[in-house]
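Budget justification note: compute hours in this period were largely spent on complex prediction jobs such as the one shown. Inputs:
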Amino acid sequence: MVKSSFINKIFNAGPLILLYYLCISEVDTNLEKMFEIFTLNFQIILIYFWVIKRPDIMANGHIFLAGLINDVVMGFPLGISSLSYLIIIFVGTYVRNKSVNTTIASDWFTFFMAMIFSNILFFSLLNNFSDLSFTYSKIGYNMFFTLFMFPIFWLLFNIYHITFIGNRDA
Amino acid sequence: MSVSRDDFSIAFRSALLQRGGAQKFSVLSLIFLALIIFFLDVYGVKFTKPVRSFLNDVVYRVTFLASTPTRFLPQVGKDISSFFNVKEENERLKLELEKYKSLELNVEFLTDENKNLQKILETEYFNKNLSNIVLAKVLVDKNSPFLKSIIINKGTRAGILKGMPVTKDNYLVGRVVETNYLSSRVLLLNDLNSRIPVTLNEGAQAILSGSGKNNPILEYLPEDYETIEDINVFASGKDGIFTSGTPIGITNIDGTVDLFIDPNQLSFVTVNLNVQNKGKL
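Corresponding output:
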């Protein structure tokens, strides 16, 4: 019983560990080296899915901290990724409060809204308060592929959710 | 109508202020905290610089440790394949050694001749003083669509300053843009923010601008200049930071430059502390 409870805790912590690992390690989801335009913001897909499905296993404080770590590793001004992730949480929590039952299609649409708000904030802060320059085509590709890949990861996370965590709504 | 507005405001407020259970902090309080941290970092209040520098050093080390498995596995594959190619490689290296032995005599002669000619021209001889070169290991090489940079394991303690040129095998790879006590961030030549004054081996001057892709672009070339393939590109040293004559790459027909060093394959680099004009850094 004790052992199974420990294993459950590990499975519950899985998404959070993955988020921290993606932020702190060299592992990234920008596959520009292989496919020239393929870049993906995997972190926001991960955050949005778990905020919608099980907010109790993705605590706000941890997401905030993961954002700060991401800023340090990527060389962005401190706090900018945290703000972008918090916008994702905010939209996700709002959608969760307003809706009774969600489907992959409704989650996809609301994710699009969350990503738009989050990226507008991120790039307007980066543009106005830092020396970093970026091309709008890159932002476009990044947003397109993030949105395009959302249903695939939604299905994968859903399988993980049902198999390892249990389909109990928080 | 008023009911739906109430619903909206309740859901909105709840999303911002909700706490309890696993959520120890509300979204609103964390947004305020993130904004405070952001503006403190951006406007560089005195005490934030050393804090950020310390934080960078700690996180970069942890990142290096966390990335060890991802570096280790491809290396194992390489080691196994190189083990099976030892005999073949040995034969090849013997042939190369013979070739380089004959070239060495030639190089010695050319070096002496170069020194003598520089003395005649009374130009400054940029002695490649090895004590002014710092060898650094690449700690983190995280690919970002918006910033092409690497993090090295040497910082202000080793004498590295912001702006110093970074090379590998004497080929230019970028410049230092952020320094911490034990680590530094190097902006690579292919980053969108990178601008380097260069000279082509025919004498034409230009600016090498990063494009965010693997090949930077030559800009501000002389009027009517037609780019042809396989022209060597060197740092011109006009900014007083990069040593003039440091090789960078070769031109393509479309005005882009093939870098001699692949920016995605860096493991060790050297930082040249002997820059021509430290006042400009």
